[in-house]
Write a structure and sequence with these properties.
Layout (H helix, E strand, L loop, with lengths): L1 H29 L4 H9 L3 H28 L6 H17 L6 H9 L6 H29 L17 H7 L1 H19 L2 H33 L2 H29 L5 H15 L10 H13 L4 H19 L1 H8 L17
């Protein structure tokens, strides 16, 4: 009971911190801006454009699911395309609308194991899918930056710092040494008494037994993907299609809002904003994504910050509305396989 109460308290603390970070990030992003002007620019967006952006978003998500479904089939797991769609939409809802510490990918990985006997392979497919998505995002952003010219705008978006790993380690050497000393002290404390040594031996035995089995399955599953290089290449192609389609929708909205910026920067800045949004410190990246887009677009565009923030809010609106089907899926239990449902009006044989 005490442990349960403590867990509940920690959950509320986590929620409070996430909402607090979101509020601070939103304040920083909109500080000094004319909110009325932002609203006026956003409301100037034609309804047909907004409807087109939402339709484009749903098309991009169907491509996303097609990629994941293909990665499942590589492992000989067949859960059905629309079952995968429902699991994905549920994950979107958790990612974009809830302050939970359980991300949409973990939720998707958890529930997909209910649809198949190949539980570890099914869960692994989610994280391979995420890795392919991130790889595609980086390739798209870097390729657009380095290989697509933007007339009259070269050099406007240059990093103002250089990452020096040696200097970084030197700056934080005492922090790293302190952490190492704490871990060393804990290990010595365990080894200095019989009970601690017993716990370590038991834990080692458990991890060795279960871990060896799990790692063997992971190795076999990864080997399957390794031997299906053509499937991975196609998954990467679907990634470009999935992300590119949604970015085109944002470009359409930006043009309607009066954003005069080269198209290539949409293909750089929006993926970066999505990456920032995955950092689990806010609610669905609220405020973080908006602030990031404002900083990046303001470096390459002569458009006012009000227009940039209106575009960022258009993306936020699209993500929220696009995630709402996940609520219905969760409420009616459509994310679970049919075997979970029992007709109590019929006798169980």
């Amino acid at each position: 009971m005490i442990a349960k109460a403590k867990g509940k308290k920690n959950k509320y603390i986590s929620y409070t911190l996430r909402f607090g970070v979101a509020a601070i990030a939103l304040y920083i992003a909109f500080r000094g801006e004319d909110l009325g002007q932002v609203a006026e620019v956003l409301l100037g967006l034609k309804l047909w454009v907004l409807a087109a952006v939402l339709a484009i978003f749903f098309v991009s998500q169907l491509i996303f699911v097609a990629r994941w479904n293909m990665l499942l089939r590589v492992q000989s797991i067949k859960i059905g395309f629309w079952s995968a769609v429902r699991l994905h939409l549920l994950g979107l809802f958790y990612n974009n609308c809830l302050p939970t510490s359980v991300g949409g990918d973990f939720l998707r990985a958890w529930y997909v194991t209910r649809h198949t006997d190949k539980k570890l392979e099914a869960a692994l497919s989610v994280f391979v899918d995420r890795a392919v998505g991130l790889t595609g995002m980086f390739i798209m952003a870097f390729s657009c930056y380095w290989f697509i010219p933007a007339e009259g705008q070269e050099g406007l978006f240059e990093p103002s710092y250089k990452l020096d790993p040696v200097q970084l380690l030197n700056q934080h050497r005492w922090t790293l040494l302190t952490i190492a000393a704490v871990f060393g002290a804990v290990f010595v404390g365990f080894m200095s008494n019989a009970k601690g040594r017993g716990l370590l031996r038991g834990g080692y035995g458990f991890v060795r037994l279960r871990g060896t089995q799990a790692m063997s399955k992971v190795h076999d599953a990864i080997r399957v993907y390794y031997n299906k290089k053509l499937a991975l290449a196609f998954a990467l192609l679907l990634t470009f299609c999935c992300q590119g389609v949604f970015i085109i929708g944002m470009w359409l909205a930006g043009r309607e809002l009066g954003m005069t910026v080269h198209t290539k920067y949409y293909f750089i800045f929006f993926p970066v904003s999505w990456l920032l949004g995955t950092i689990p410190i806010s609610v669905g990246g609220l405020g973080i994504m908006e602030g990031g887009l404002k900083v990046m677009f303001s470096r390459v565009s002569m458009v006012s910050d009000e227009h940039i923030l209106a575009l960022a809010l258009c993306q936020r609106f699209t993500l929220l509305v696009g995630s709402l089907p996940g609520v219905v899926i969760h409420l009616i239990g459509a994310h679970l396989p049919k075997e979970f449902f029992i007709d109590y009006n019929k006798p169980i044989n």
